[in-house]
Write a structure and sequence with these properties.
It contains 19 helices and 17 strands. It is an alpha/beta fold.
């Protein structure tokens, strides 16, 4: 026995060497060498060591098409997602958002569920065609009344309402006139944004102009390739166009111009103290090795890959490399456009799921090189979703270091899982808990270093269906017609997390069972 205890295999020696490399002290015990965590006997209790800032928003988030249903009720006009989902072949099994979670009729139950799990914020989107059925013209009073009632219910429950003005529901009437290819849509969006700020900003203090510029532009107007272990996956969505590069870049420009004009409209129409910012999916480059040269390379890469959206919004200019690479296909713009796009913001919202890529510094331009994901890199249920918790540290870190963001909100995070109802009626989603525990640990790492993250919105709220004619078609959201609300699955642990304010799973539970191949908030 003693000989067995004292013998170190080659593999064990390597493991112990690795432990020493990450700071785990070694000690002798009974003739064998074993690792002992550095803080096993000392150090603060977890609750004291891993807190988030006071006043942190623990929220959940949805989008209108995802949950509302009532697609043609009370004067609502059709959106491009109504049209896209109704077209045969675009969505697996012919699913639509016609009923979805029936939130339009059952919003009081949903707000009660949010309160039950301890959420203190809720990011919801407003359906543009529910307010302006034709995109412009007279507003629909019944549509506005729904959002007034929802906001009142949230406020009464002690939940801060965070409103997103565009989560991809362009009125079909505007799409028929050219959609985001038509610069008139930019002004129409600004007018709509100003109207909503005028009507809701007495209770809604945070407005997000547009959610995920890159997603709705690139996936809806060309299709988007996403890096995954072993290759790429193609994502597409409404309105289902395939534009050439020059036209795509012009749509990109129109989207950020619409954001800037909306910021100005909200300033003009909103109550004093109203805050406004974007909610963009940040393409975060993560340093494969956390040393100064590789961190700097990842930072520079992050700035460049976000050039058409976050970078121009926060710097007021397109990067030289972006314009050079685009060449004759670069967007047409004026200096006045850039001033509008860079209208001052109160916060920056970033959606964080995964890195754009791991990078290393390189001697050749542009100064970094992407590293392909290993084939065995951990994946989640969604084909596009690579597991990489450190992206939750570097994304806000770079938003601060690159652009001087003074207030950051993680406007989306979470994962789709294959939920199974246990015999006791609950869903023990250990995979989602693992995901959130790891990502929130990295987020707390950032806040502990002074990165000004003020809140996070999470939720199991996506679905991607594989269409017959597409490798991956974005349906955008869980659209189960189930009448059953399932947020009770494990609410007690979640309620305690906010009280303790420690790094643990805070995911607000969505009500209906989603398909496991998931995306789109």
């Amino acid at each position: 026995m003693q000989a067995h205890n004292t013998e170190l295999t080659r593999r064990a020696s390597m493991e112990f060497a690795g432990m020493a490399a990450v700071g785990l002290p070694m000690m002798a015990l009974g003739g064998s060498t074993v690792a002992q965590p550095a803080d096993v006997r000392a150090g603060p209790a977890p609750d004291a060591a891993r807190t988030f800032p006071d006043g942190f928003y623990w929220g959940t988030g949805t989008s209108s098409y995802q949950i509302e249903g009532a697609w043609n009720e009370d004067g609502k006009g059709p959106s491009i997602w109504d049209t896209y989902a109704h077209a045969p072949g675009n969505i697996k099994d012919g699913d639509t958002g016609d009923i979805a979670n029936d939130h339009y009729h059952r919003y009081k139950e949903d707000v009660a569920l949010m309160k039950e799990i301890g959420a203190n914020a809720y990011r919801f989107s407003i359906s543009w065609p529910r307010i302006f059925p034709n995109g412009t013209g007279p507003p629909n009073a019944k549509g506005l009344d729904f959002y007034n009632r929802l906001v009142d219910e949230l406020v009464a429950a002690g939940i801060a309402p965070f409103s997103t003005l565009y989560h991809w529901e362009l009125p079909q009437a505007l799409q028929d006139k050219g959609g985001w290819q038509n610069r008139d849509t930019v002004k129409a969006f600004a007018d709509y944004a100003g109207y909503m700020a005028e009507k809701l900003s007495d209770r809604v203090r945070h407005f997000f102009t547009i959610n995920e510029f890159r997603s709705f532009v690139d996936m809806g107007h060309q299709a988007k390739e996403v890096l995954i272990p072993g290759g790429t996956v193609t994502l597409s969505g409404a309105p289902g166009l395939k534009l050439p590069p020059g036209e795509l870049n012009q749509v990109r420009h129109h989207s950020v111009l619409a954001h800037g004009m909306a910021v100005q409209a909200i300033r003009a129409k909103g109550k004093a103290g109203t805050k406004v910012g974007p909610a963009e999916v940040i393409l975060c480059s993560v340093p494969l090795i956390e040393t100064a040269e590789h961190i700097r390379a990842a930072e520079v890469a992050t700035r460049e890959v976000n050039a058409p959206f976050l970078t121009v919004m926060l710097e007021g200019k397109y990067t030289d490399l972006y314009l050079k690479d685009a060449g004759k296909d670069a967007p047409k713009f004026t200096d006045e456009d850039l001033k509008i796009i860079a209208s001052p913001l109160d916060f920056v919202g970033i959606n964080v799921y995964k890195p754009e890529a791991y990078v290393l510094a390189a001697d050749q331009p542009p100064g970094w090189r992407q590293i392909s994901y290993a084939k065995g890199h951990p994946m989640l249920s969604s084909r596009w979703h690579t597991m990489a918790p450190e992206s939750m540290y570097w994304a806000p870190k770079f938003a601060q270091s690159l652009w001087g963001a003074k207030e950051i909100h993680i406007t989306e995070n979470g994962c789709a899982t294959q939920d199974v109802i246990a015999d006791d009626g609950r869903i023990y989603d250990t995979d989602r808990i693992m995901f959130l525990r790891n990502y929130l640990t990295q987020l707390q790492r950032a806040t502990a270093e002074g990165v000004p993250v003020r809140g996070i919105s999470t939720g199991a709220r996506w679905t991607i269906s594989s269409g017959p004619q597409a490798s991956e078609t974005v349906l955008g959201w869980c659209m189960s017609t189930s009448k059953r609300r399932s947020a009770r699955r494990n609410s007690a642990p979640h309620s305690s997390m906010r009280r303790r304010n420690v790094t643990r799973s805070r995911e607000a539970r969505h009500r209906s069972k989603c398909r496991s191949e998931g995306r789109l908030r």
